[in-house]
Each structure stands twice: as structure tokens, then as C-alpha cells.
Amino acid sequence: MGRLFVFMMGVAVLLSFGPYVLPLLLGAAAMVAFVVGAIEYATATISGFTPLGPIAHLRIDPPEQTEEGPDPAYVSYFAGPILLDYQQVLRRTLVQVWAKVVGSFDPRKVGQTPSLVQRVWLWVRRSMLWKLFTVPTAVAATAGLVAGAGIALGFVGVISVVFAVLLVLFVLGAVLTGGASRLLELAVLFARGITVECPTCHVRATRPVYQCPNESCHATHRRLLPGRSGVLRRTCRCRQTLPTLLAGGKAKLPAFCAECSSPLPIKGLSAPTVHIPVVAGPQAGKSVFMQIAVSRLMLLGDGFEFADPDAMAQFERNLKIGVTDDPKRALKTVVARPRAYNVFVGKDGSLARRLLYLYDPAGEILESADQLAEAQFLRFTKGVVFIVDPFALRQVRSASDRATLGEIRASNTAPREVLERFRDSLRERMSADKTGRINLSVAVVVTKADGLLDLSGVRHPYAGLDHVDRETRSQAVQDWFGEMGQRDIVSSLANNFARVSYFVVSYQDAREVTRHESGGTAVFNDDPAQPLLWLLHRKER
Amino acid sequence: MDDDIPRSVTTGRRVAKALLLFATLITLFAAIWLIASWVTQPITV
Fold first, then answer.
1. Which residues are bridge partners to A444 per DSSP?
2. What residues pair up with A343 in beta bridges, in sequence order?
3. Which residue from B8, B16, B17 is facing A230, i.e. has the nearest CB?
4. Chosen from B19, B21, B32 to mutate, greatest number of chain A CBs within 10 A
5. What is the pLDDT of residue A540?
6. Contact indicator for A460, A476 with CB cutoff of 8 Å
7. What is the C-alpha separation between A324 and A330, in angstroms, rounded?
8. How far, in Å, CA of A465 to CA of A451, rounded?
9. How far apart are CA A193 and CA A196, in angstroms?
10. Is there a contact between A76 and B6 if contact means CB atoms under 8 Å apart?
11. Are A535 and A276 in contact (CB under 8 A)?
12. C-beta separation of B20 from A163 below 8 A
């Protein structure tokens, strides 16, 4: 009877105070579990996103370099690996929260460190208090702990959704930025007419192949554009970061033609290209003219820069063998597909900067109509330098003795023949305007002017001419052609080309345009750089 | 060990942490705002 009475009293107490105490206990347990969940989530986030943490699970290793395969670059962290890192964070959070609050999923870990729920029931088992009080307490605590863990995981779920939205917005922003930058880049290139052509095979390089500048790597990237490997920059397999846009410095990377793998000009796609073939028959003086013209361009400054190590090497080689001191030392141009000689003219960063492609085709190519027909470089011609060896003209040859002709290495090909073949080849590729002229500028350059200084019976074209403007000097040369019985060349040029100007140059002015004597009068030749500058629409110097 | 991890990953992880912190703050503020709205809801009698 006594025991029954005590039991009834216990029930009464439980029913009296239970509705107040047990919910409080449930709430407190839920808060404890929630705090545990929050701490575990924060810990998992810090360790999951630690900058120097393991990366094996990210699968970002670059593919091996192959001919046609993907570029050897790391996948961008935001193109997938970030989700793998976050997946690890969530997995760790779930496992840890459940293990610490309820009990481990891993049977091997059962009994190692008791969870909160397990501790509660351990207390119930070991407690000296009446089970009538401890069991309801434990039930309330357990319910609170599980609910708290559930709420914490639910909170993590909501954060994950918000994180995903922010991530999508971030990636979208980056993709749009990259895409817009690329479109802007293309628009600027189109508006400024900037392209790059292979100096060897003469095709337009629409997709240059870029090479990693790292000396120990040199991996080639065939598609160095904003994409999965990075929006504004990508990481090469050697960890070198490479820009994907020209504005980021991509133009400074070594680039190669996708067709023939030859090197493209350094800093190509940074300035519009101007293709200028130097046309004449064999031994007319094309190579010497190129050497002295480039020499003067270099001395004039104005942003001059070699865009091709081979061009610089060739220039230095000619300088070393003394071509500008004695043109006879110039080596015969090899009869092969001409490779362009690339130089920059114009201040770096200015709109006036141009990338010159100077072609020095062997005279034999220009003598042959078939070889001219195959000359791919003519497609991009914007201006022509037409070299006239005065000692190839009949009247001048008649006034010269054999020794002089040998000394000066006179060309045996009549300029008119070369002009006609070249004109015909151009007409096949270019359209004429309403007057029937090819819309092209031609700088006619009379070379070997030094040989005309002391020739009896033949005057120097500028003899008796003071410093006058370009038009007057050009007219003086035309008049000289008329005197030499070559009015037909002048007429042919005027009838076939939209713009023609005449120049007279000599190797003696390679370093500085100096005063010469001819028949007792002072003579000043044109600056050897002037024909090129005229073709580029530069001001008179 | 630094050399084994591309800089794009280390930078990306820092950005990810910042995004996650921002997401947590947004969620917290949203939760507080919802609870406050519920608590201060006028009682209909």
C-alpha cells in the first residue's frame, strides 16, 4: 500500500511539473544540438576550403599534351572542383553532427566516444533517481537533441542553397565578363583592322597557337581563350599563369602558325599589319634597300622594334658583313617562298603603330609568272615598293662602261618587264576602281643613286634640286625617267595604280642622309626609310 | 607543399569561403527577420 501511494505521488508530481520542465528540457537539448551542428559546419568549412588543403579529390590535373587534344591546363576551380570541395564539407558536417549528437554511422566507431543521446541514456541507466523521472527526462532530451540536429542540418541546407545561388551568380558574372571581354576584343580588332598573318606560309592566322613562356615547359595551347580552364587567366601544367585575352598580355606570348607551326611575329595582334613586297628583278638592289631602309627606320626611332628574332639576326648579320658600307657584300636572296621581315613602326600603344611585313622575294620569283601566281603574300598587299635599278635602263647602261656595270652589279632585267608581270599578277587578285586602277600605293625607288653622281651623259634625278616637297621631288624623278626614254614605265604606273610616288636612294645614306656632289651641284637623296613611311602615310621628314 | 597546389585553387578556396560566409550571414539575417516578423505579428482575437 505504501509503495502504491509513493508511486501515485510520483505520477502526480510528474503530471504537475512535467508539462513545464520537459518542454524546457527539450528546447535546451535542441539548442545544444544546434550549437554542436553549427560548430561542426564551421569546422568542416574551414578545413574543406583551407587553401593548402588536399586536391587529389578535385580531379583538376591537366591532360597530357597531344596534337589535337585539349590544352594542357588546369581546370578552373569554379568550373566544378568547388562543388567537390563543398561536397566534402557537407559530408563531413552530416557525419560529424550525427555522430556527436545521435551516434556514428560507422559501426567500427560505435562505443568509442558516446554521442549526446548515448550519454543521456547512459545517465538513465546509471542514475539512482527513480526511472519514473529519468526516462521521461531522457525521452525529452533525446527528442530535443534529434530535433536540434535536424534543425542544424536544415539550416546548413538553406545556407547551401544560398551558397549555390551566389556561386551561380559569381560564375555567371565571370563568364559574362570573360565573354564580353572577348567580344570587345574581337570588336576592337575588327574596328582597327588588326590581323596577323604567318610570315612563312602567308595564311591569315585566325587561331594562333600560343606557347607557355616557361623555359622548362613550352607547352602549346591551341585554344587560349576564356573557358573552363579560366576566364581571364589559366594555369598551365607547369603552374605558369597565362592570360586568355590580349588586354591581359596574351600578345606577348610566343605564338605559332596553326598551319605550318612557324613562329608568328612577337606581339602580333597588337597593331594592324601592312604588307609591302619589295619588287624588282634580280640584282636590282632589293635586299640592300631593305637593309638601309630598316637601318634608317631604326635610327629614326618612333617606336621601331623588330617583331621577329630572325629579322633582327638577319639585319645584324648584314651589318656585320658591312652591307651598308659596300652593297656588293649583300648575299644573293634564296629562291624560295619569301619569309616576311617583320618590324614595328610607330609608338607602342598608339593608334598609329603598324606591324610591317616586308617581303624580299628573290628576283627570279618575280621573273616567273607561275611563281608569282603562287605568291600567297600578294593577297594582303597594302603597298608596293618597286625598285628600279637605273643601270638596267638602256640609256644609263650605254653611258656606263663595263667596269662600272660590274662594280655596281647592274641588273640585267628590264624594270618594265618586271612591272608588267607584277601588275598582271596583282590584277588577278585585286579589283580595280572606276578608273581601272588598282587601289594600291606604289613607291618607285631608284636605287644605286651613288652610281649616278659621276656618270657622264646621265644626270642625277635630283641634280640642281634644293630641299623641296615630296610632290616636286617625285615629279623630278618622273621627268628623269622621261629623259632616259622610260616614259612608258611612268605612264604604266600612273594608269595601273591609284597612287604613285618616286624616290631616289643610296646605300651611302644608310646611317644619315648626307649631302653629295654631282656635277658641281649639291644633291640630297631621299631618306631610305621614306618610301616605307610614305606607304604608311607618314609626314615628310 | 605550396608548389603542388595551383594558385587558382588557393585563391578559389579563399573566394569560396568568403561566398559561404556571405551565404551564412544572409541566411542568419533571413531567419532572424522571419522569427521577428512572426513574434511581432498582431494577434487576432
1. A386, A502
2. A306, A356
3. B8
4. B19
5. 30
6. no
7. 9
8. 18
9. 10
10. no
11. yes
12. yes
Burial of A537 (0-12, 13-18, 19+ CB in 10 A): exposed
pLDDT of residue A365: 58
CA–CA separation, B26 and B20 (whole Å): 10
Residue with cell 616586308: A358
Question: pLDDT tens, A466-523?
Answer: 777 889 999 999 999 999 989 999 999 999 998 999 999 998 888 888 888 887 788 8
Whether residue A270 is predicted with pLDDT greater than 50 in this model: the reply is yes
C-alpha cell at A177: 565578363
Interface probe with A: pick from B27, B33, B34, most Cβ of A within 10 Å:
B27
Contact in structure between A270 and A347 (CB atoms under 8 Å): no
Q: What is the pTM assigned to this prediction?
A: 0.78
Helices (H) and strands (E) in chain B, counts: 1, 0
Q: How far is the alpha carbon of B11 from chain A, nearest alpha carbon, in Å? A: 7
pLDDT above 70 covers a percentage of chain A that reads: 91
Specify the pLDDT at position A317.
81
| Å between B13 CA and nearest CA of chain A | 5
Least confident of A331-340, A344-353, A366-375, A455-464: A366-375
From B12, B17, B26, residue closest to A77, measured CB to CB: B12
Residues of A in contact with B7 (CB under 8 A): 235, 239, 241
Pick from A60-64, A102-106, A267-271, A358-362 the range whose average pLDDT is largest. Answer: A267-271
Instruction: Measure CA A505 to chain center.
Output: 38
Residue from B1, B7, B24, B25 whose CB has the most chain A CBs within 10 Å, to mutate: B24
| DSSP H or E run through A139 | helix A131-192
Contact in structure between A524 and A498 (CB atoms under 8 Å): no
Minimum distance, in Å, between the CA of residue B34 and any CA atom of chain A: 14
Q: Which of residues 84-103 of A touch B (CB under 8 A)?
A: 85-86
- Taking contacts as CB-CB distances below 8 angstroms, the residues of chain B near A74 are 6, 8-9
Within A49-130, residue ranges assigned H as helices are 81-101, 116-126
**CA–CA distances in Å: residue A400 to residues A235, A414, A454, A457, A508:** 67, 16, 10, 9, 20
User: In the predicted model, what is the mean pLDDT of chain A?
Assistant: 85
Residues 6+ apart with CB under 8 A from A122: A114
Contacts with B, A 12-51, CB within 8 Å: 45-46, 49-51
Bridge partners (DSSP) listed for residue A341? A358
- Cα separation, A506 vs A510, in Å, equals 8
Q: What is the mean pLDDT of residues A211-227?
A: 91
Are A159 and B23 within 8 A, CB to CB? yes
Q: How far apart are CA A361 and CA A281, in angstroms?
A: 10
Interface of B with A (CB under 8 A): 1-17, 19-20, 22-24, 26-27, 31
